[in-house]
Prior knowledge:
The chain is an alpha+beta fold. The chain contains 1 helix and 5 strands. The longest helix has 13 residues, at 4-16. This is YolD-like protein.
Amino acid sequence: MRHISSIRLLLLHAKIAQQDVAVLTNKGKWWSGKIEKVEDQFVQLRYDHNMLVHVPISTIEEVRQS
Length: 66
């Protein structure tokens, strides 16, 4: 598992570049979409064009930028 600060850095870079991302949680769930906000503990992801999902950064195993 990656360190939380390195995952936050990947998420922030994707937000600045306005890239879509896919995140894998430690429960095996993939969420994909555009990052709306990166907070201390959570990331907000715009999923399916209208649904906003809050994913705890501590549960994220992998970030893929598309």
